[in-house]
Amino acid sequence: NAGVTQTPKFRILKIGQSMTLQCAQDMNHNYMYWYRQDPGMGLKLIYYSVGAGITDKGEVPNGYNVSRSTTEDFPLRLELAAPSQTSVYFCATCGSYNEQFFGPGTRLTVL
Amino acid sequence: AQSVTQLGSHVSVSEGALVLLRCNYSSSVPPYLFWYVQYPNQGLQLLLKYTSAATLVKGINGFEAEFKKSETSFHLTKPSAHMSDAAEYFCAVGNSGAGSYQLTFGKGTKLSVIP
């Protein structure tokens, strides 16, 4: 039982490049989330999904896109990377009492 | 709307001393409350949760928290700090309303343990 997995662990992008952050879960949870974490700022919700085919914006969606074709996978797409997107990205799923289970994170640097 | 305030971005304690990390919340409906711990270069791990059962909640690694509705608080405590407790701690609030599955996180408190 792997829980929530994320790839890659680290990535360096040049300004204007694109990439997809992968997230997969084997907990059979319907709700999934993408957060970004910046020093001293806590976690900010980027996008979330309530099930396959259904996604919605969070607090800071600009510059990102998501899709959810299966229960297991919830990729996050950056189309035109900007230095402001340098951050640590976490994927999470939601259990029975709103508790969330987090992946190990992807550390992204945009230069 | 819901919000979380963690008092103190950094807290230092001596090894063996009491750990007290403060969290106050606001919520328009009965809340669910959580504490998470994050070790360096890792994801967030659930320490404990309050979901309207007992107001004193015990978690992993000897931590506990008490829900006080009158004070809108959910402070995290541990009687005796260990070096391994050095990490960042996040308080989060969710609400028990139907269809609500989002958490609001505090900005975190970094705990240092002095030998």
Question: Can you characterise this structure?
Answer:
The complex is a heterodimer of chains A (111) and B (115). Chain A is mainly beta. Chain A contains no helices and 11 strands. In chain B, strands 2, 4, 5, 9, 10 and 11 form a 6-stranded mixed beta sheet that branches. Chain B has strands at 2-7, 10-14, 19-27, 31-38, 44-50, 56-58, 64-68, 73-78, 87-95, 104-105, 109-114. The chains are: A mainly beta (111), B mainly beta (115). Chain A binds chain B through residues 4, 31, 33, 40-43, 45, 48, 50, 58, 90, 92, 94, 97-105, 107, and chain B through 9, 32, 34, 36, 41-46, 49, 51, 90, 92, 94-96, 100-103, 105-108.
The fraction of residues assigned to DSSP E strands of chain A is over 45%
Q: Could you give a short account of the major beta sheet of chain B? A: 6 strands, mixed
Task: List low-pLDDT spans of chain A.
Answer: none
* Largest sheet composition of chain A: 7 strands, mixed
Q: For the largest interface in this structure, which chains are involved and how many residues does each contribute?
A: A-B, 24 and 25 residues
Q: Would you tell me the overall average pLDDT of chain A?
A: 94
| Total DSSP helices of chain A | 0
| Rg from alpha-carbon coordinates of chain A | 13 Å
Task: Identify the overall geometry of chain B.
Answer: globular
Number of DSSP-assigned strands of chain B: 11
Q: What's the order of the H and E elements of chain B? A: EEEEEEEEEEE
Instruction: Supply the helix-strand structural class of chain B.
Output: mainly beta
The proportion of strand residues of chain B reads over 45%
Cα distance, first to last residue of chain A? 36 Å
- Assembly context of the chains: heterodimer
Number of strands of chain A: 11
H and E string of chain A: EEEEEEEEEEE
User: What structural category arises from helix and sheet content of chain A?
Assistant: mainly beta
